[in-house]
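Action item from last week, closing it out:
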Amino acid sequence: MQTRREFLKNTTVVAASGLTSADLTASGAAPAKRIGIQTYSIRRQLKQDMAGSLKALKDIGFSHVELYGYEQQAGKGSVLGYSPKDYRKILRDTGLEPTSSHLEPPLPSFYKFGDGGGTGKGERSIQIAAYTKENTGSILEFWKRALADHQELGVPVVVQPAMPQVNSLDDAKRVCEVFNQTGELARKAGMRWGYHNHSAEFKRIGVKRGEDWSPEMEITKDSYPSEIFYDFLLKNTDPGLVFFEMDVYWAVMGQCDPVAYFNRYPGRFPLLHIKDRDILGSTGFMNFENIFRAGYAKGGLERYYAELEYANPAGSSPLSQMESVRKSYEYLANAAFVK
């Protein structure tokens, strides 16, 4: 078995010789893992030194990134203040491949952060105003502009990480309709569109207990109005137009099992957010081995992104965001069940 020193030496030799992953596979050696990261994980560092922080991710070993920070103002799109052209150049100069991006329509936002780190109590809810007949047109126009900007960025996948408010069955149906329409816009642009969850999506939706509620309404676990909203989305969106990027940590925080979802809806989860209460694998809270194995076998897993929302939420260590990211990378790089 190679020592770490020998491995690093051989890696350096390979890099100097210009061999690619395909060359390594042909020669019988295993190709290096392609580990991605959501750039929100180092949001504070990015604001201080954009190019230097991205280079630090590349130096750690990350091969690709999922962007955050896209917005539109006066009909023009930008990422953390940079034009698509300028941001793409920064990424190209750094050597990081932009494979996905998080963004949502500019509707009023409603945040509920709870305490997802540390104690694990509370929920994470990032919601935007309800989709209506009146705002559907502007939502789709936002996505048309966003898709064009991300083509310029060289990003083939866009993901919405904010849940529209849902207060009725009609609200839920309209969300699915707009998701399908957005997915069709992405398909026509040669791109893919998906949805990312937090924990609020795992609440049951429908009529609330009160004057309009009666026990006989909850006939089966799958019947509306007792259905989990996340399941409603999965059942009422077109698999050819809408995929799901499961944030496995927030699914667990929503008291749902990622593995059960991979088995129930095979092939719907090509992307995953890999997250823990702190540094990946440091808490024992998440069964990442089962999640990865089921993701590959059933979920349709193609890419995964490490994400840290809190540097050291429980005060367990004085590490910076970047050091926490580095240790999380090492966990994934050394995990035998991660491809």
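Closing note: The longest strand covers residues 97-102.
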